[in-house]
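Hello support,

Our group uses your service weekly, and this is the first time we've seen a run hang past the timeout. The protein is Glycosyltransferase. I'm not sure whether the cause is the sequence or the server load. Input pasted verbatim:
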Amino acid sequence: MKRRYDNPKTYYISVNEKYNFSHIVALLWMLFSIVLSIPWLNDFARYISWPAAVLIISGISYIPGYMNAFMVSSLLLDRQPPLMQSNPKLPITVLIACHNEEKSIHTTLSYVVKQEYEGRIEVIVIDNNSSDRTAEAAKAAGEELGIDLRVVEEKTPGKNHALNRALSLVNTELMITLDADTLLHKWALKHIVSRMASAPPEVCAVAGAVLVRNSRNNFFAKVQEWDYFLGIASIKRLQGMFQGTLVAQGAFSLYKTEAVRAVNGWPDAIGEDIVLTWNFLAKGWKVYFEPLAVAFTDVPESFRHLVRQRSRWARGMIEALKIVKPWQQPSKYTKYLTGCNLLMPYLDVVYTFCWLPGLVLAFFGIFWIVGPTTLFVLPLTFAQNYILYRFQKQVFRTLNLRIRKNLRGFFAYVLVYQMIMSPVSVYGYIQEVLQRKRVWK
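Update from on-call engineer: The timeout came from a worker crash unrelated to the input. Re-ran successfully.
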């Protein structure tokens, strides 16, 4: 720990010290859980053997507990580095890939126009084989709103083809990808460009914070509001803290144009933004996360569409793991972070086929699988969500935003959401193994 010379009462804890400390805390928590679980482990082993019992209990208790403890302790130590430039004026290009977005493109572009950003903003809308009048609607909106707008067409279906079509047309050092149903907060561009301008030269991308816009519409959207607000935000904040945000998501992220070109643009993958980010990390570059750069997107409002989206995300993770192996990452931080993803299929399979049936058995007093030790994951889960809530509350206060009251959605997110997401992820893994057809939307 090093004393800051500008303020003798404060200390600077290095990233490496935070990393090592969080692993020590996580290891101690896991050892504590193992000691408490020995009677449960012995009982369970009588029915299925010791190796099988260890394999299952590790997947539902030890490993998730370790990961959660690492995350909680890391987040408690997290301090966003200050912005060295608070009002950048760098020119940027915004890429908006569209497929049948005739009804939404005007609104999206209107929020780009409302940005309180003093640099030049160019916009390229890519019509990706739409069957409606997306291109015409975009041109009309550009003229009405007075945007520096170019509309191009890409007939080959696929978001990666659309973005790569525009990549050759970008003339600015920085570019942003934005989904056609995603609306920017008025300070979003200022904050995300400020983070890049304040970052070391090896930082090649900054992921923005994407939150839910349509959470009032139905129960599925209400639950996902907390997933984006707490779950996804906590993961990105953790990853950004260790300089390796694993997904600079296509919905809203900032990239150095030459860095994207250096890895040959967006790959032909269902998770093109995941693989692109991992290609950055494999080169030893860093990817940051800026929580103040907020955008709001529409999330699926039906179970069917939610399954499609999250199974795509699961497939995208598997694609990234096949292309860039965790042990090939040059940084020990990204080795660990991507290595956690290597464990996710195992954890999701154990959760789906062991924990969920075990939960049913527990209701009948049979504690073979779901036992008292599994409850130790809950305090960590609530602690993690509380810590992130405090961070997010400060973010919203800074942006003059208000957190919606959504208690029903919150408790469903904490207690039930994983029961849906793990089976959906398993479905996505199976799709990838069977090489099922890829669908963008």
